[in-house]
Amino acid sequence: MADSGSVEQNLKSSYVPQVKTSGVPVSGQLKDAIKKKEAEKVKKNVDKFVEEVRKKFKFIEGVGIVPAQASKLVENEFDIKEEDRKRELVHLLVVAPEKKNKDLPKIKVELIKIAASINNKLWVHLITPMDFWGMGLDSKFEVFEALAMSYPLFDKNGVMAAVRIAQIHKSLVLRKFEKYVTTYAIGGSFVRGDTVKSSDVDVFIIIDDTDVKRMGRIELLEKLRGIIYSYIGEAIAMGGAKVDLNVQIYLLTDFWESVKDAHPVMFTFIRDGIPLYDRGAFLPWKSLLKSGRIKPSPEAIEMFMSTGDKIQEAVDRKIFDIVMHDLYWGTLTPSQGLLMLYGESPQGPKDTVKRLREVFVVKEKLLENKFADILEEIAIKYYKGFEHGKVKPGDIDGKVLDGLVKDSVKYVERLKELRLQIDQRNQEKGIDDIYDGLFSMLSALLKESDEVKIIKAFDKNFIKEGKFPKKYLENIKFVAKVNKELDIIKSLKKGEKVDKDKAVKSRRYVEKARKLSSVVTNALIDYTQRCDFLSMDRARFIVKAKDRTAEVFFLEDVFFVEGAKVKKIIKGKIVVGESQELETQILAQKDKDNKIDVGALGILRKEFGEFELVY
């Protein structure tokens, strides 16, 4: 159940009944008092309805209150009589699971009885998720939005909150970029019906780039992506619910190429997705896919079919695979893994055998030479020897095979011990690098040097402002904790020998810290890039003349770019400029206020004639 303050606020803004005063004037204060009293009464009635519904119908998935401003749309959709509309109904949306579809008429009768026993202004709408998605598939986007904006009073798996946040995000995106957006659709587990409270909300946005002339397609995608991502936090804050909105953005031309090439993600998106907004593209695609009219291109089919060309080769190798496959890969793969752990790049069989001996036997003196001999015998003498025709299947009898199996088992066990030895050398440096890399970036961004202050500043400036999800703060804290408290690190500093179980557990902590740090680092890089784009936009204007168009930048100097030519205004004259100089001044102007140079406007007027300056 949502908290009482949030529900009361929603009721005040969305439902205020008319007050009849029998012709007696009512003061503003008295009106406010009556409205507040009525809103509180409605809230109590709604809370009581939710309580009784949940008690009687354990399977109900959600209950929400429809905003008053959406009531007219809902009443038109469900053909509510005029006499009922005049009663200023409070519309309640109840969501039942699909498996109860046959019982909906009976359930609705019981829900109506409950509502009527509480207040005859409570009007119940009972739907299943399929009814809900059907409105999107029928292009009833306004009705879909009206119901989706219902304030969740009870939300079993978070579906109502998820759709509400998606609708708010869609509205923010369309308000800014409606002419570029071809489709805004929701998909994934929420549509398939296998959602849980921790499920992400998968949203797909297709951007129409077919008529873009003034900027490159990649520039368009990056600019829109940065702003669209920035709306996620705003939508979550406005929606009043914690939802992980996973937004994927595609250019229309790239999307269609992927569909023609049979990309599984695009096929799944078209098959399962439900449009919240569509300009006549997505639903036809969906129909064409369902009817089998969207098929892979000949090139894609050729790519998939080419794997069949190796059938004869696979048959020829079958006998050898039965005898040697497990031994070869069972020894070579962990050997490559240890070399990568040491810092080497993945290599082929011959180089792996060579580098294993050079690194661990000769240089580090961590591995006995006999184990390097075992790998060389299996990988080079027998496996590669068979490939090159030097070894025949009949050359490997039972005695040889038995010896190879025993040697390979000993080899793998020795590699496990070697891994612990390498871990003991690498982990201290590894966690230090992870910590220093992450906190150096945070320190530069937040202008703080102390770890505690950095974490507090990140929470205040990014988490509470809705710029990043809360899990990023938990990631940062985990990295700091591993850096300080990991037992394996303390033991290594003392030169103590670490037992196997302790080393494995500690290694997992360090790897987890590495992954979490990478997630935060990538997000911070993306954020700073978006800030750079916005900084450039603040200084950038468009000059639109009769026959010419140019970009103007009011920086330390005034630049204008027309086509591929960069020019600069210096001392009342137009001279040739440099792209590098323009980029340098854009970066230097970051986070500073920009002022339009009135004198430069006069110079531009002489160059372009009468023009319009567009931001």
Mean pLDDT: 78
Helix content: 55-70%
Largest sheet: 6 strands, antiparallel
Number of domains: 5
Enumerate the strands of the largest sheet in spatial order, edge to edge or round the barrel. 13-12-11-10-9-14
| Uncertain parts | 1-28, 492-496
Number of strands: 14
Q: What share of residues are in beta strands? A: 5-15%
Element layout with pairings:
Elements: H1 4-14, H2 28-56, E1 62-65, H3 71-77, H4 82-85, E2 90-95, H5 104-118, E3 122-127, H6 129-137, H7 141-148, E4 151-155, H8 159-177, E5 181-187, H9 189-192, E6 201-207, H10 217-239, E7 245-251, H11 252-260, H12 264-272, E8 274-278, H13 282-290, H14 298-305, H15 311-316, H16 318-342, H17 349-363, H18 369-387, H19 398-446, H20 451-463, H21 470-485, H22 487-493, H23 500-539, E9 540-545, E10 549-554, E11 558-562, E12 565-570, E13 573-576, H24 579-588, H25 598-608, E14 611-614
Parallel strand pairs: 2-3, 6-7
Antiparallel strand pairs: 1-2, 1-4, 5-6, 5-8, 9-10, 9-14, 10-11, 11-12, 12-13
Outline the structure in words.
The structure is a single chain. The chain is of the alpha+beta class and 615 residues long. The protein has 5 domains: 1-156, no CATH class; 157-307, Beta Polymerase, domain 2 (2-Layer Sandwich), CATH 3.30.460; 317-325 and 339-396, no CATH class; 424-534, no CATH class; 546-614, no CATH class. Helix content is 61%, strand content 13%. The protein has helices at residues 4-14, 28-56, 71-77, 82-85, 104-118, 129-137, 141-148, 159-177, 189-192, 217-239, 252-260, 264-272, 282-290, 298-305, 311-316, 318-342, 349-363, 369-387, 398-446, 451-463, 470-485, 487-493, 500-539, 579-588, 598-608, and strands spanning 62-65, 90-95, 122-127, 151-155, 181-187, 201-207, 245-251, 274-278, 540-545, 549-554, 558-562, 565-570, 573-576, 611-614. It has a 6-stranded antiparallel beta sheet, with helices on both faces. The longest helix is centred in the C-terminal third of the chain and has 49 residues, at 398-446. The relative contact order is 0.05. The model is unreliable at 1-28 and 492-496 (pLDDT under 50).
